[in-house]
TrEMBL record:
The keyword Ligase does not apply. Residues 1-20 form the signal peptide. InterPro entries: Beta-barrel_OMP_2 (IPR025665), OMP/PagP_B-barrel (IPR011250). Coiled coil: none annotated. The lineage of its organism: Bacteria, Pseudomonadati, Bacteroidota, Sphingobacteriia, Sphingobacteriales. Residues 19-195 form the Outer membrane protein beta-barrel domain. This is Outer membrane protein beta-barrel domain-containing protein. It holds the Pfam family OMP_b-brl_2. Keywords: Signal.
């Protein structure tokens, strides 16, 4: 009878031990980032459109496969875009017309799927790369001109819902204690899909400077 009880207890305990070990492979976190963004293509020529500041905020998930390799994904709200800055004077300073600044903002729900390689013992360095998809939430253009009210127009219907491309980044992770760590990462997201519905091409690009707090389950 005692042997049966011992075997029964062991059968009950083993799944919990296995689950506990699996949990050590998983980490979750929150991440924020200022971003440097621009839009490429025939409708956003570099001659006229400049890079602008954006931002990202989201949640991260990492699954460790072995001591080096893991899978990383995020679910993030990301603002991408570009700015058109038209001066009211020419290079000689002569007045040529009313100057204005137009911000084209693309708001996305972004999901990358990255393979990550990690090196080091206490402070860990990592590189990761993989594809991303983005789902367009809205596209608005805000125009500001001196002496005129600010104009904001919604152009979401002119663009495809889906964006996709390649993501790559490098960073480091610093442990705070057994459960928490802080991560820093530089990451570039190169859009490869023409998101314009009509004539001309439009593609996204953003560089993130990610700061994350990670909890190891």
């Amino acid at each position: 009878m005692n042997m049966k009880k011992a075997l029964l207890s062991l059968l009950i305990i083993i799944p919990f031990l296995s689950f506990s070990q699996e949990k050590q492979k998983i980490s979750v976190g929150v991440v924020i980032s200022p971003s440097l963004t621009n839009i490429r293509g025939t409708n956003f020529l570099p001659k006229y459109y400049e890079k602008t500041l954006g931002y990202l905020i989201g949640a991260s998930f990492n699954y460790t496969i072995n001591n080096t390799i893991s899978l990383q994904t995020d679910l993030s709200f990301e603002r991408k875009g570009a700015v058109l800055n038209v001066e009211g004077t020419n290079s000689q300073g002569a007045y040529e017309g009313q100057g204005f600044k137009a911000h084209s903002n693309f708001d996305y729900l972004t999901i990358p799927l990255l393979a990550r390689a990690t090196f080091g013992s206490k402070v860990k360095f990592f590189i990761n790369a993989g594809p991303f998809v983005g789902f367009l939430i809205s596209q608005k253009e805000t125009t500001k001109a001196s002496g005129f009210p600010t104009s904001k127009i919604d152009y979401t219907s002119l663009y495809q819902c889906l964006d996709a491309g390649i993501t790559a980044g490098v960073g480091l992770s610093v442990p705070m204690n057994e459960r928490f760590s802080v991560s820093l990462e530089g990451r570039n997201n190169l859009g490869l899909v023409d998101i314009n519905k009509y004539s001309g091409s439009v593609m996204t690009n953003s560089t993130n400077f990610l700061i994350g707090v990670v909890y190891h389950l």
